[in-house]
Design brief:
heterodimer; A: 87 residues; B: alpha+beta; three-stranded antiparallel beta sheet; globular
């Protein structure tokens, strides 16, 4: 299970979500669909649940949404914005 | 003799000042009058490192030590110059304000921030608005903002522009000899053209070189530009930086932003910019 790093603060601006990494002092911008997925990751939802919910919201196939979510998670990991939950 | 600067507008900042958040007081030693050479030191309570970091961000590439060395090398900054562009902004940031690399003018009781990287023409455009459009100067080069009464306000801070040319060296501006600014002219304003009270912010204007029409900026375009122009301190406590980030994003959602291209090469071009500014 993934957990958003405690070093990350998030602020919505319009339909974007802006993330500040307090450790690395870098800013990141998530568009509307990435924001949707990130917010559900923050709530502890599983990737499968997020894809199901996204499929009801966005005009994309579940396969595409799963791919987008996987890409987002990899990006978050590469910037150390998420960490594996020990629980 | 030591001087401790106090901020006349500190009551406007929300949350107050907690010395444990940022244990720095700024004490300035001066030898003689207000325009004499200035030495900056921290108090015995101890914030050489914090203040040096603050200077490093406000003057990229320079440290407190370098500032002192420059002064010892014969380039002496008067107290008033440091006060407006460094001391008051840092003090206000510590008290919860935001600061941007921006100039600011007041028109009809509302503030316009002019933002751009170094050398693009913030000071020049602000001076043109004062000279040709009846604006009043709020601040040059560093502008501090605070959210009060649910609106962002800009603080008055400067009575002079530091510009790379003297195109606007006539009333209400007049040139002051500036051995401490060999690359720039310091144009000091007639006091009647200088704002004295904080005013609400009406708009953010991002300046670019070359004449082009005013263009509204979307949130996606505004946010990275605004973050790039914000003064922030990586050495500050995490909670402090998180709060500043949230304030910056709130500002981005509260105030409309535009991009304007300006020809700053001639006095006539600057006059046209200023006269068409409110159109």
């Amino acid at each position: 299970m993934l957990k958003i790093s405690s070093e990350v603060v998030a602020q919505p601006v319009g339909d974007q979500l802006i993330l500040l990494d307090l450790h690395g002092n870098a800013y990141f911008s998530l568009n509307a669909s990435a924001r949707f997925m990130f917010e559900r990751l923050s709530q502890g939802l599983s990737p499968d649940s997020i894809v199901d919910e996204a499929a009801r919201t966005f005009a994309a196939t579940p396969e595409q949404l799963a791919s987008d979510l996987s890409e987002l998670i990899e990006a978050l990991k590469s910037y150390h914005l998420v960490e594996a939950d020990a629980m | 003799m030591s001087i401790i600067f106090t901020d006349p507008f500190k009551s406007l900042t929300e949350g107050g000042y907690d010395p444990t958040d940022w244990p720095v007081d700024l004490v300035f030693h001066r030898d003689a009058d207000v325009d004499a050479p200035l030495m900056i030191q921290s108090t015995p309570r101890g914030a050489d490192l914090s203040f040096a970091n603050a200077c490093a961000h406000l003057f990229p590439g320079e440290s407190l030590v370098e500032l002192e060395l420059k002064e010892k090398g014969g380039i002496c900054f008067p107290v008033s110059y440091h006060r407006d562009r460094l001391i008051l902004p840092v003090m206000r940031i510590m008290r919860g304000a935001l600061a941007f690399h921006a100039s600011c003018v007041e028109c009809a009781g509302q503030a316009t921030l002019l933002l751009a990287p170094t050398g693009v023409g913030k000071s020049t455009c602000a001076a043109a608005l004062v000279a040709f459009a009846g604006a009043k100067l709020m601040s040059d080069d560093t502008t501090t903002l605070v959210n009060t009464k649910q609106r962002p306000f800009a603080f008055p801070a400067s009575n002079s522009f530091a510009m790379r040319h003297a195109l606007l060296n006539e009333e209400p501006c007049f040139e002051t000899p500036t051995p401490f600014l060999p690359q720039k002219h310091l144009l000091t304003l007639n006091p009647s053209w200088v704002a004295t009270e904080p005013v609400p912010i009406e708009q953010l204007i991002f300046i670019k070189q070359g004449r082009s029409a005013r263009k509204p900026l979307s949130q996606a375009e505004l946010v990275p530009r605004l973050l790039a122009q914000q003064f922030a301190f990586s050495a500050a406590p995490a909670a402090f930086r998180a709060r500043q980030f949230a304030q910056c994003m709130t500002l981005a959602s509260q105030v409309p932003a535009f991009e304007v291209g300006v020809d700053t090469s001639t006095r006539e071009a600057l006059r046209q910019f200023a006269e068409n500014f409110g159109a």
